[in-house]
Structure formats: C-alpha cells, structure tokens
Amino acid sequence: MSRTPSHSAGRRSDGEGSVTQRKNGLWQASLMVNGHRQFAYGKTREDVAGKLRKLQGVAEQNGQLPHPGRLTVGDYLHQWLEQAEPRLRAKTAVDYEILVRLHIAPHLGKTLLSKLSALQVARLYATLLREGRSPRRVQQAHGLLHKALGDAHKWGLLASNPAAVVDAPRRERHTPRLWTQEQTQRCISAVLEGHQGGQYGPLLGFLLASGCRVGEALGLRWSDVDWQPQRVRIERQVTEVRGRPQEGPPKTEAGVRTIALPSWGMALLRQQREQVAAWKVGSQRVFPTQVGSVPLQGNVRRSLDSLCAKLGLTRVTVHQLRHISLSLLAMAGVPVKVAQERAGHSTPTMTLRVYTHVLGDGDRTAAAALDALRPDPAAEGSIKM
Q1: Where are the beta strands (DSSP E) in 36-172?
Q2: How far apart, in whole angstroms, are the C-alpha atoms of residue 89 and residue 142?
Q3: 184, 186, 174: which is closest to 332 by C-alpha?
Q4: At 141, which helix (H) or strand (E)?
Q5: Please, which residues bridge with residue 257 across strands?
Q6: Neighbours of 341 (CB within 10 A)
Q7: What is the pLDDT of residues 159-199, one digit of tens each?
Q8: Would you put residue 242 in left (φ > 0), alpha (ψ -120 to 50) or beta?
Q9: Would you say 290 and 199 are in contact if contact means Cβ atoms under 8 Å apart?
Q10: Exposure on the CB side of residue 368, measured as CA atoms within 13 A
Q11: Which residues does residue 30 pair with via DSSP β-bridges, in sequence order?
Q12: I need a surface site. Which of 137, 197, 354, 355 has the fewest CB within 10 A?
C-alpha cells in the first residue's frame, strides 16, 4: 500500500489524510475529522491527492465532515466495498467492484443515498436488461444492492432498504445438453486408453470420475490421494482473480469432503502421476502444467473443445462435466442425498435439478404406480395389488 510521504506511520489526528492504492488498482484518499472518516476515489494518485486537499479545505472551513445527507450512492458503495473486502473471497470482491463500477454507479452513482427510491432501483434493473445485460448479471447487481443498502439501513443511513421491495428479474432456465452414457464412455476411453486430450486429458477424465469442480481438481495434491481405498480428499480449490490463480478453501463447508473413485478414475490418476514425473517439474499438485504452474481454466476449456470436436461429441463446458458425472449417478439409481454429499452441494436443489433432467417425467412414473391399484374385475369390490 502506498501513502503520501508527509504522513507518519502512527495514528492520524484530525485533519490529517492519506492516499493509498487499493487491490483493484483504484486510488483512495481518506480524511479523519471529529472521529469520522471521509473517503474519495480516483484512477490516479494525483487525482485523489487533489480531492484530499479539497476535503481538508472543507474540514478547515467548517470544522466537520460533509453532512451524511450529501453522501451519494456511488461514494457509499465504494466505502461499503472497502469495509466488506476483508470478509470476501478475492474473486467475489473483484466481481462486486466490477458490478458497482460498470453497472450500478453509471446509473445511480450521483444519486443521494438518502433520496434513493425503490422505483429508481427497479428502473436500474430494467435499464441493464435493455442494455443487453443477462438476467443473471442483473440478479447479481440486485444481490449486491440488497446487501449494501440493507447495511445502510442497519447503520442508520437509510430509513428502509429500497432494494428489499424490488423483484429481481427471473433467471432463464436452460436445460443443459449433457452427454449420453455412450458418449461419456467414448470420452473416458479416449482419455484413458487413447491418451487423448493432451496434457489436460487426465484432468478432464478425473472431473467425470469425481464430479468435483474444476477449481477443486486444480487444488488437489498428491497427499490428498488415498490409493487404498481409492478416494481423494477435497480440502482446497483454485480460483482465478483477474487472470491469476489463487488458492483457498472450497466454496462452502459442504465442499470439504472425501470422494470415492471408480477403478478407471484411479487408473487416470496413476497415468497422471507418471506424466507429471516425466515432466520433472517437482510439483506436489496432481494437475499442474508441463512447467509446473497452475493451469489456466481457459486452456482447459480449449482442450475440452478440441477433444469434443475430435470425438464428435456434443460440445459441453468444463463445468458441465460435473453435471454429467451427476447424471451417471442418477441413471444408476444413487440416492439424491448421496449424490449431494459427493458433489459438495450445500443444498439438494442443484442435485435435484440434474436428477430431474436425467430421470424425466417423475409425475408420469407416479401415475403408472397408481395404475396398479386398478380394481380386479374377477373380484368385485377388491383392489388389485
């Protein structure tokens, strides 16, 4: 963190200020007056230094900070992000900053926080949709506003939370196009026996065998592999923040789990161990690159695209390999609860969504079961069981 040379390293007194650079690259000026801190933001150090001088001038003239009633939505969201950042995952913090900078601030940034209405929030969502933002993206903006404005209400800056009474747009549900069992077998054979898929072939096969998230597979170490009785322990995952891999705990508490692997899944791991040993990269990761670094997920995606084209398979995303693995469990009659724990889902909602897609019309199955209760004409008044 950079700061202006004139500031001491100790606690700052009233009227003193600081200029620092945040993790997202923006510069920030802060000023403490009468026990309250005021912030200003800019793209360059010179920009925020000028804003700091203006804040100091206002403080000297009035002896106090600008009244909270003059706080804009943009300034408040920047301050809210700053206090929330230590509690957020790095990727989440970056996503929130992008949502504020690109989607929310351009439309509501100059609005006084105290004057923000539910109608303005609803108009924001409608505007974002007209601009071509996906319903999912608008839902994310709604989630951020709901939380941030809820905190403003809790802290006494708003009489109520205007986002709490506005409905976010419904997310369009698309039925995923997953592989059939024959297509899945073709892919497994190509990777395991044909050594296809390049350096990421075993990784793609492992995702089908385990059903784990790609970030969890990239965080896997050889110490997490239990060769007998054929299982792996998921304790960490790798996420990409601004194109750089960062390692951390799984997405939820349910993500920490042990996954039993089929024999062909263990065969893939043995194949991968030999491959990594031949690269002589000295990595403890199960799925490094040929130079020992963490694979970028874009490169893994391109490897899968190439494999699908070569084998004539329906093109799927890397994440959908996880869904395909769950679909195999559904076809095999594995209970939803078992599949949920294996997948690391915190709730069975996503697991059920995949199961419903695979198993089809459960209501028709129920009707067929009731059809067995048709009265037996040979015995009047009896029920055929």
Answers
A1: 36-42
A2: 19
A3: 184
A4: helix 135-154
A5: 234
A6: 16
A7: 889 999 999 888 766 666 788 889 999 999 999 988 898 89
A8: left
A9: yes
A10: 5
A11: 18, 39
A12: 137
Amino acid at position 365, single letter: T
Query: Which structural domains are found in the chain, ordered by start?
Result: 1-66 (no CATH), 69-172 (1.10.150.130), 181-333 (1.10.443.10)
Q: How far apart are CA 31 and CA 371, in angstroms?
A: 76
- According to DSSP, residue 39 is labeled E
Amino acid residing at 21: Q
Residue with tokens 């915190």: 346
Encoded amino acid at 338, one letter:
V
Burial of 26 (0-12, 13-18, 19+ CB in 10 A): middle
In tens, the pLDDT along 39-96 reads 777 778 887 787 777 666 655 555 544 456 678 999 999 989 988 888 888 888 889 9
Residues 6 or more apart whose Cβ sits within 8 Å of residue 141: 99, 103, 104, 124, 125, 128
CB 19 within 8 A of CB 45: yes
Query: 7-16, 161-170, 212-221: which has the highest mean pLDDT?
Result: 212-221
DSSP SS3 for 366: helix
Q: How long, in residues, is the chain?
A: 385
Helix (H, G, I), strand (E, B) or coil at 220: coil
Q: List, as one string, the DSSP characters of 308-345.
A: HHHHTPPP--HHHHHHHHHHHHHHTT--HHHHHHHHT-
Q: Report whether 318 contacts 297 (CB < 8 A).
A: yes
C-alpha pair distances (Å), 64 with each of 12, 28, 68, 79, 154:
16, 20, 11, 19, 24
Question: Which token pair is 143?
Answer: 């989630």
The answer to whether the CB of 162 falls within 8 A of the CB of 113 is no
Give me the residue label for tokens 């039993």. Answer: 260
**Residue 39 token pair:** 């912030």
Amino acid at 141: A
Which residues are bridge partners to 245 per DSSP? 240
Q: Which amino acid is at 246?
A: Q
